Amino acid sequence: PLYGPDRRVAAEKADPKRYNPHCNDCVLGEGPKSPCLGPLVTSRPAGQTLLVITDWPTAVEDDRGAFMNSTNSWVRKVVEPLWEGSIVYTHGIRCAVSRSEKDEPPDAAFTACRGYLRSTLDAVRPARILIIGKTAGIALLDRAVHAPWVRGGYAYLASGAVAYWMPEPSRAITNDLYGRDWLEDARHALQD
To answer: Of 6, 38, 45, 54, whose CB is crowded by the most CB atoms within 10 A?
Structure first.
């Protein structure tokens, strides 16, 4: 082969891990109040399950719980009316990352957290997945995509689930043009 063997490991091929609230598998577990922050589940009686994966928890979420910061609250307001079934919200990296480390989590964090994401995939068995942000894409598929350049981009998992790439939403909240595109992409991913 031209490039040699592919050594990347997607989440669905990683070994599942039991949830460990005192995770010390990497350096990120040392700082936050809530290491290995678990998922937030919105249960509904009918329909298939949607899995929403964002990059990592913020300091606000470390204090108040998963998906409780303003950006992720906005994501929930957009996504929940578009999906009829249950929704599970989780992070690709499970520990809050300090501002100094925000741009690039260490590779050890992806390795440590990938098994937890695999456990979530096995438990939830989603029909559809929203990958929100670069880090979430690396955590799930070991691939980074600049989502605004590949609007409507998706990947199939071995389970048959379709994973759609979505841009990080902070710009969409403050800019009407980005907000309109984000909503359009969410409708495409969740209703088509």
So the answer is: 54
Q: 129, 94, 131: which is closest to 113 by C-alpha?
A: 94
Residue 149 corresponds to which tokens in the numbers above? 């350049």
Considering only CA atoms, give the Rg of the chain: 16
Cα 191 to Cα 85, 106, 138, 176, 186: the distances in Å are 12, 35, 25, 22, 8
pLDDT in tens, 46-86: 789 999 999 888 888 888 888 888 999 999 999 999 999 99
Whether the model pTM is above 0.70: yes
Q: What's the 3-state SS for 1-48?
A: CCCCCCCCCCHHHCCCCCCCCCCCCCHHHHCCCCCCCCCEEECCCCCC
Tell me the per-residue pLDDT of 32-47, one tens digit each, with 9 for 90 and over. 777 677 778 888 877 8
Nearest CA among 141, 172, 159, 161 for reference residue 8: 141
Tell the residue number behind the tokens 């595109």, with chain if given: 181
The whole-angstrom separation of Cα 113 and Cα 95 is 9
Q: Are 36 and 29 in contact (CB under 8 A)?
A: yes
Q: What are phi and psi of 50, to 5 degrees?
A: -110, 135
